[in-house]
């Protein structure tokens, strides 16, 4: 682009928060043991700042997708969830924030494709029934 007209050179593509979380989780899942932030940062590449990586790890920890344990003055990190688990955590968070859960779920289910509806029915059929009072919020 011509900088003389005030244009800017295209920079590296910005990743969305969810995309970066998935990449961090993928890197952690490839680790044989709990790893420090610098290890994750190195494998992500792309010049991400250490503080960006620690922020993403902290967010994933708050969501229950990663675990951390003390190692000296810092932490080492381990994946607890995979990408599907992370997506499920995000979906649950959205659902938990709504006041009318039934309306949200009904809207979600009616918008499913026939294949997704069939898959959901199959998955629900495989879930054991809970005794009354169990699992209620």
UniProtKB/TrEMBL annotation:
Belongs to the BlaI transcriptional regulatory family. GO terms for biological process: negative regulation of DNA-templated transcription. It comes from Streptomyces nymphaeiformis. This is Putative transcriptional regulator. InterPro entries: BlaI_family, WH-like_DNA-bd_sf, WH_DNA-bd_sf. Signal peptide: none annotated. The lineage of its organism: Bacteria, Bacillati, Actinomycetota, Actinomycetes, Kitasatosporales. Gene3D superfamilies: Winged helix-like DNA-binding domain superfamily/Winged helix DNA-binding domain. Keywords: DNA-binding, Transcription, Transcription regulation. It comes from the Bacteria. One of its GO terms (molecular function) is DNA binding. The keyword Cell membrane does not apply. Pfam families: Penicillinase_R (PF03965).
């Amino acid at each position: 682009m011509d900088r003389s007209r005030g244009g800017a050179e295209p920079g590296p593509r910005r990743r969305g928060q969810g995309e970066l979380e998935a990449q961090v989780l993928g890197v952690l899942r490839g680790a044989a043991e709990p790893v420090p932030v610098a290890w994750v940062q190195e494998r992500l590449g792309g010049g991400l700042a250490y503080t960006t990586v620690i922020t993403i790890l902290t967010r994933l920890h708050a969501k229950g997708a990663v675990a951390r344990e003390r190692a000296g003055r810092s932490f080492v990190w381990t994946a607890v969830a995979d990408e599907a688990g992370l997506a499920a955590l995000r979906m649950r968070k959205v659902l938990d924030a709504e006041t009318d859960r039934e309306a949200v779920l009904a809207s979600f289910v009616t918008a499913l494709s026939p294949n997704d509806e069939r898959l959901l029915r199959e998955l629900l059929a495989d879930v054991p029934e809970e005794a009354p009072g169990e699992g209620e919020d």
